[in-house]
Design the sequence.
């Protein structure tokens, strides 16, 4: 297998040769305006629409700050150590 054939896995993996298969029924949370977009504190660098995340319940409030997640798997991970993941957003 070459490097280009490898698929990276994550809690919200969408890497696949066929994007329809990769979505596995998940809504695309990357839509929205630039003002509406932030990064996921768990999957650092993964963009997420704040409005889409809120509508799906993919956020947590921690120390008077709201954190938005790119997928449902990131919320429980954030809950396991919120200070660690909140520090990723500084």
Sequence:
């Amino acid at each position: 297998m070459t490097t280009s054939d490898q698929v990276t896995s994550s809690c919200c993996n969408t890497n696949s040769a066929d994007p329809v298969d990769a979505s596995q029924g998940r809504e695309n949370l990357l839509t929205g305006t630039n003002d509406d977009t932030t990064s996921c504190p768990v999957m650092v660098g993964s963009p997420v629409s704040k409005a889409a995340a809120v509508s799906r319940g993919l956020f947590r409030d921690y120390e008077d700050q709201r954190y938005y997640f790119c997928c449902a798997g990131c919320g429980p991970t954030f809950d396991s150590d919120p200070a660690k993941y909140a520090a990723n957003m500084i």
